[in-house]
Amino acid sequence: xxxxxxxxxxxxxxxxxxxxxxxxxxxxxxxxxxxxxxxxxxxxxxxxxxxxxxxxxxxxxxxxxxxxxxxxxxxxxxxxx
Length: 81
Hints:
This protein is mostly helical. It has helices spanning 3-48, 52-57, 65-71. Helices cover 73% and strands 0% of the residues.
């Protein structure tokens, strides 16, 4: 093989490698999001099983469960204690 024949092979190998890395990254992001979604749904289901008093004890209301799961609870200011 001459050096001219090797260069396209290296280029093709590099392109395939880059494509596979991109595909793996996308798959990782997809599965990470899926796992996060399943965990969030489970946590929301557990919180929905609590009565209103127990939710209030942890600083939540029934209407705030979804927001708390997605974004976390807001910080409690010291002055409101």
